[in-house]
Design goal:
Helix content is 41%, strand content 19%. By secondary structure, it is α+β, with helices and mostly antiparallel strands. Strands 2-1-3-4-5-6 form a six-stranded antiparallel beta sheet, with helices on one face.
């Protein structure tokens, strides 16, 4: 899908701006503060319902205005034109419309209008903490596989419920028999699917990474990735075996979780370690290598 028309109302630096875009490359030219990056941020809002610059939607409302509105028309070779409109009112939250019809859940748009953003903040993908790499995995896979997004949202809800129960145990409250086990089962089932999808994606992504590095004509260094999760996955375990390993890890940390009041095992703590040759990129690479 290609974005052909974009309208911004009370968004960041834009009081009201309308853009007609070319089907391929578009260049935005203007002085600092004119709102060039805001245009990219607005497109990201339409495609993923959130900013890639801030986690607070209110920051995107133009100063002195009660709301912002973004509307874009997308066209594709195999699909009819799609018009998406996102409206944000601080006291009411965000609403999203597709071809004039409101969506029941904002997550329904994810994957319908795929988007990739390249920005200076991407430096954090290799230099930042594990949460940056998990965010990259989740954003990419959620757009490519709607079932992944559904599993991810359900996993987060299960994790929240399980942590609440662990907090109760930490405070000395006795739970009804089997209460925590039920959430363990849910966590393992959803987490196993998430881990398996991440593993398969990273296996394929590693090939693209190596090829891209060769195109840069880099010599003497080979980029590799290691996926660290609840259990070793280098042997590409079947889902049932992976689930058994997940459950075994939960059993081993049961006492520590009760003491800390939170879940200590699961894909919410996954890490992807990048290496160049023999050294790990995050602590040792130069800024250029990142």
């Amino acid at each position: 899908m290609h974005l052909r028309h974009l309208r911004l109302l009370s968004f960041r630096a834009h009081a009201e701006t309308t853009l007609d875009l070319a089907p391929k490359v578009n260049l935005l030219v203007g002085p600092n503060g004119a709102g060039k990056t805001n245009v990219l941020e607005a497109v990201h809002y339409l495609c993923l319902t959130k900013s890639f610059l801030t986690s607070t939607d209110a920051h995107a409302v133009r100063r002195g205005c009660p709301f912002f509105e973004i509307e874009g028309t997308f066209e594709g070779e195999r699909r009819a034109a799609v018009t998406a409109k996102l409206v944000y009112v601080p006291s009411e939250g965000k609403r999203l419309f597709l071809n004039g019809a409101p969506l029941n859940r904002l997550a329904e748009i994810v994957g319908e209008l795929p988007i990739v953003v390249l920005s200076p903040a991407d430096y954090a993908l290799t230099a930042g903490g594990p949460e940056e790499r998990r965010r990259f995995l989740d954003a990419t896979l959620s757009q490519a596989h709607p079932v992944y997004l559904d599993d991810l949202l359900k996993y987060r809800r299960a994790l929240k419920q399980r942590n609440a129960l662990l907090q109760q145990i930490r405070r000395g409250r006795r739970l009804a028999p089997g209460t925590l086990d039920a959430w363990d089962t849910e966590l393992v089932a959803l987490g196993t699917r998430i881990i398996d999808r991440r593993r398969r994606f990273l296996s394929r992504f590693a090939e693209f990474l190596a090829e891209a590095y060769r195109l840069l004509d880099a010599v003497g260094e080979e980029p590799t990735m290691t996926y660290q999760t609840v259990a070793p996955v280098e042997d590409e375990p079947e889902a049932e075996l992976l689930a058994e390993r997940f459950r075994a890890r939960l059993d081993r940390v049961e006492r520590r979780e009760a003491e800390r009041g939170r879940t200590l095992v699961g894909p919410h703590l996954d890490e992807v370690v990048f290496r160049l040759g023999d050294f790990e990129v995050r602590p040792y690479a130069s800024q250029g290598q990142h």
